[in-house]
# Entry
Amino acid sequence: MNPIIHEIEEALQTVASTIDRLRALGHEDPAFRLARLQYSAAIRASWPGNLAPLTVELTRIAATPNLGLSPEEQGRLDRAVATFRKVCQLA
# Structure
């Protein structure tokens, strides 16, 4: 498998776990916004274009204090943002 695709898939798994975690913490609005963007990002034929809006929302969530994400979750989120930014720059 192409290493870039593997990185994108890992980042998308982080998005899914972040959605679940935000919902568990009662943050429904950011979880819903992220879920909508995750849905469109799942269409590989549109990569990397459909990853840019997801990157913007992930960056916003990562920068939001007091969401209750653990340092480990925050680190995974930061890595996902970095992956999506790298992929968008490769296009």
About this structure: The helical segments are 3-24, 28-41, 51-62, 71-90. The first helix runs from residue 3 to 24.
